[in-house]
Amino acid sequence: LGLALYANSLCVASGAAFLYHDYCVIGAGPSGLQAAYFLQQAGRDYVVFERSHAPGSFFALYPRHRKLISINKQYTGKSNSEFNLRHDWNSLLSHDRRLLFRHYSRDFFPDADVMVRYLEDFASLLKLRVQYNTAIIHVTLERDEQAWNGHYFVLTDQDRQNYKCSSLLVATGTWVPNVVNFPGSEYVEGYETVSINPEDFAGQTVLILGRGNSAFETAENILGVTNFIHMVSRSRVRLSWATHYVGDLRAINNGLLDTYQLKSLDGLLEGDLEDLAIVKDKKGKLHITLRFYLENRNTSTGIDSITLPQDELDNFATRAPYDRVIRCLGWKFDFSIYNRSLRMMPGKGNKKKYPQIKPSYESRGTRGLFVLGTASHSVDFRKSAGGFIHGFRYTTRAVHRLLENRHHGVPWPSTVYPVTQLTNSIIKRVNEASGLYQMFSVLADIILLRENATEFEYLEEYPVGVLAELEMQTGRKAPNGLFVIVMEYGRNFSGADKDVFYYNRAVGEAQHAWQSNFLHPVIYYYKRLPTEREMRLRPPDWSLPRPDAVHHIVEDFLTDWTAPNAHILPLRRFLENCLSTDLRSFFADSCFLFAFTRQKLPPFCRQGYVRMQGLVGSEGLRRHAVEAGLLEDYTLTDFLGNRAPDSHKGSQDQLLRDHVIPVRPLQHLVNAKDE
């Protein structure tokens, strides 16, 4: 009995050592707080672990020169809050209107300290459950068939406290500096520690390693005080206005391009950094050479015994010595805290700084582990905005909806409309939706057709990469076909070597909409849900497999797709062709006429007029519709003979006054039908 009681006490003590939550979120940056908001709104059991004493610790240090490159547009000329988020790249999603970033700063490019204050308010005002000063140092798995995913996640913090979770959301971002090791790399200063006081660089010659926004931001800060600045990287400069990728070089930081191309001493070079070597002379000057010159040589013997490139090539580009070399190579994901059992593997090629994840943002190695925020950018790297607040606020919401369906049986939110509202629903979304606009080619609106195409179900901002899994991931059925609405740039318009300002770059005619270059809506029609094989075999630059039909809404200079002839009419006709139906709206008297002349009424008449909900038009409105070509000239005299009423108040009033319909007009209608 004593042994049994002792064993039981050990089990109780062991159980008490683990603090359990359904959801654990690592990191209280923007994506972690965004995930916490959705979990809290849904009433879920969760906790957010943050190693610092406040949220958004990354922004407390970066960017070093404190100016964000995410735009904060105060005015758009519109009051629609969803539309305005298209041009607000800093706000997180919430129901609290106080938590819009425009209330915190009026600067177009805000200060990073304002972002820190914003994130603190977001966490405190919404009372999010964030556990500060808790650094998770180890994550492993504990197998259990009763767990949601067949295992629990066990997290250990710096105080050896253990936590157990059913689902793990990793929102730590990419914060480990990228470092390239080569001979002499010990002389290199890192972006994370280099001085930001321009006076410290006065009269100096500087070499910057890297060619991203952090490199150009550093150059911009010291451009006016240095002798000259050289910048070297293995790839050519990529301008965001050419690639349409917001992570590439932004205009706010590209002053060095001016001084380079206008021959004011500064310059850009291409080369593999791993092939470089740095040698320091007796005066403290840093000389650039190549690694192979140092092979089998003792660098400690002095620079005079080392062959430099200029010894063989007297016009070698970097022959002038430098006072300082600064590393600005960005950051990578921290894989060190994850046990091998989680199989958190880095991506391949230029995605190796991110963990491998599926298009659903779930780890490829471990079920139930989702990666959010900047660290999830491998899904759309160099394609869309998933690595930035204005993108991952929507992908985080998508992940939450996937989890709600998987673990709690809550289907993806949807709205059911009559088919007569199909055109209007699409036009409304492509003109307002921010998630579609920012996460172009990645998130899509899905329209699921009901039987006989009399109704449809509208799902917003679903990840297109898992379209084949739509029924499983959303809890919605798609047996009767579907439309997929995405935003796209022209296929050959974006690229580092593209001239995006060439003459006749824009398309204005609806018949040439498929050649549109700028961001525009594209509607894909599938008679059935694409299979996983079709998704896997789609062309590399296609976000979706080949559809049964596709329609491009022609690009618009104002991004306002409401023109009746250029935008709405071609879309409506495309939808009608796909559904073999008539999606026009009609006046009540037109529906009455169709009842005598057609075997099948248009949906608008079946769903409206037959239910006594038809639209009654005035004579002035009718004339306008006829003149615009929207209605045929069915006049009342064709129906009731040549008698014209003295005052026409609408077809319905006239028909109510004439209780008996003369035989001749009725026979006239029958003959018209036979013809």
TrEMBL record:
Coiled coil: none annotated. One of its GO terms (molecular function) is monooxygenase activity. Keywords: Endoplasmic reticulum, FAD, Flavoprotein, Glycoprotein, Oxidoreductase, Signal. It comes from Burhinus bistriatus. One of its GO terms (biological process) is ERAD pathway. Probable flavoprotein which may function in endoplasmic reticulum associated degradation (ERAD). May bind non-native proteins in the endoplasmic reticulum and target them to the ubiquitination machinery for subsequent degradation. Belongs to the FOXRED2 family. Its cofactor is FAD. The gene is Foxred2. Interacts with SEL1L. May interact with OS9 and DNAJC10. Interacts with TXNDC16. GO terms for cellular component: endoplasmic reticulum lumen. This is FAD-dependent oxidoreductase domain-containing protein 2.
